[in-house]
Design a protein that fits this description.
mainly beta, globular
Amino acid sequence: MSTTCPHEPPCPSAFAADREAAHPVVRHPEQGWSLLCNGVLLFEDTGELLPDGRVIAPHRPAAALAVA
């Protein structure tokens, strides 16, 4: 999936380390996911699905888990 970002400055690519900083273009909080401008599906558990099909496991900080 190729996307062209209309934002200025452009959003990080789906394969950049800071890919989660891209703008959401579709949000479905009732289903627990958002589609970012760069084509990444971001899930509320912090997991991700990249445009090439790769899955990024949830990666909440350990400190957040200790509070829960």
